[in-house]
Amino acid sequence: MIEATRTLARALADDNRLRALAALSGGELCLCQLVELLGLAPSTVSRHMSELRRAGLVAARKDGRWVHYRLEASGPAAGALDWTLRGLAHDPCVRADARRLARIRRRDPSELCRSQCR
Q1: Which domains does the chain have, with CATH numbers?
Q2: How far apart are CA 55 and CA 5, in angstroms?
Q3: What is the pLDDT of residues 16-33, one digit of tens each?
């Protein structure tokens, strides 16, 4: 139980992971959309998402070359996720991310990926 709690706490102790969780509260996103939102390298975002998966906060599905992430928590992780998202709801950075994400969602993910690989 201590190890699971430590893993969960570690996952929540990073601004970019918190931003990713807040973004996923609006629905599933592919890695390239998260890369565009966070402004980080794909490998960095992938590592952040792995940390969130290990903590039981996020699930992933592979669709060809695409990896899609969604919130999926149960037990103690679900309570922590709910508490975290409520706490982030009025954060200025998260609100700015939501506006930016609305624009990102309108773009074709394959176009996003191509532009990131240049």
Answers
A1: 2-116 (1.10.10.10)
A2: 8
A3: 999 999 999 999 999 999
